[in-house]
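FAQ

Q: What does a record look like?
A: Structure on top, sequence underneath. For example:
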């Protein structure tokens, strides 16, 4: 029997280590039933099972795939879609119910974690917008040419180091807030700048840089003017400020005025070439990747994913 094309395939990615997982899904399930949504449901047991489950939903013919998760799960989903043939990809609409540690791409569209009913009402309207994807092209440790797509951002340098520290301390403390604060304290003992050689448009940057954010969307506040449908990437290059200026920078980041800091240099481009970024960690949509070997390039592909947006 053919699958009903209006039937949703839902992948639930619980926040591991939290006791509210069952209650969270119960609320979502109640809203789905209230809205008479026809759906099938699968749950990821581990972060590395997301790819397998998304591919299963694609292969089984679901035309609406909804991820209940955060930026990392959404990143896995778009990379699965980009691995499918173009006809299959263009027949599928991707939806999101935010449920992750980081939900930056959801926040861009005003999807909020605690407004489940509103989110499902919007998804039910099935308003589709084609969105851009950024892509990092690199060589891995085995000498293989690789690429990885992203919806939100790529971070190079300090912010990726903080994400790494936060992940390690979260396992220790079990608290997002405590882990973030402790990560900032540990940051004092970390390398705060990196020797980089970057080409953006006609500009060549050869100097010590604290962090670089290449944003297709908000970039966790570092590329606040980026939009994922103009065929361009926003780039924020942050030089090494003094400690007092660093604290000011975090304040501006939290208040949404990051680009006002004098150490932040913004760009807008279609391509970034990173010829060198010595010992600088790289993260994609909030998840650390194995550092590229040698130079790497970051580009944008315009309007390649069907995304369900608010009505």
């Amino acid at each position: 029997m053919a699958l009903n094309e209006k039937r949703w395939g839902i992948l639930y990615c619980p926040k591991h280590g939290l006791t509210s997982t069952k209650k969270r899904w119960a609320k979502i399930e109640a809203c789905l039933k209230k809205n008479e949504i026809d759906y099938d449901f699968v749950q990821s047991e581990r972060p590395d099972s997301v790819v397998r489950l998304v591919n299963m939903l694609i292969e089984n013919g679901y035309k609406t795939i909804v991820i209940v998760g955060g930026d990392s799960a959404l990143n896995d989903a778009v990379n699965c879609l980009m691995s499918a043939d173009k006809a299959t990809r263009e027949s599928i609409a991707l939806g999101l119910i935010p449920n992750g540690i980081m939900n930056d791409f959801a926040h861009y569209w005003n999807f909020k974690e605690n407004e489940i009913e509103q989110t499902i009402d919007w998804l039910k309207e099935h308003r589709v917008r084609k969105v851009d994807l950024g892509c990092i092209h690199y060589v891995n440790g085995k000498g293989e040419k690789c690429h990885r797509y992203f919806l939100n951002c790529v971070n190079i340098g300090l912010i990726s180091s903080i994400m790494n520290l936060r992940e390690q301390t979260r396992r220790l403390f079990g608290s997002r807030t405590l882990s973030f604060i402790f990560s900032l304290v540990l940051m004092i003992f970390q390398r705060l700048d990196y020797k980089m050689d970057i080409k953006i448009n006609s500009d060549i940057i050869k100097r010590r840089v604290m962090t670089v954010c290449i944003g297709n969307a908000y970039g966790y506040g570092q590329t606040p003017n980026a939009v994922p449908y103009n065929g361009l990437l926003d780039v924020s290059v942050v030089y090494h400020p003094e400690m007092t200026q660093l604290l000011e920078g975090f304040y501006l980041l939290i208040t949404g005025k990051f680009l006002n800091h004098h150490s932040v240099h913004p760009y807008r481009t279609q391509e970034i070439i990173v010829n060198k970024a010595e010992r600088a960690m790289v993260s994609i949509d909030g998840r650390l990747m194995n550092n590229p070997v040698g130079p790497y390039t970051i580009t944008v592909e315009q309007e390649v994913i069907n995304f369900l947006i608010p009505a």
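Q: Is there anything notable about this one?
A: The first helix runs from residue 21 to 34.
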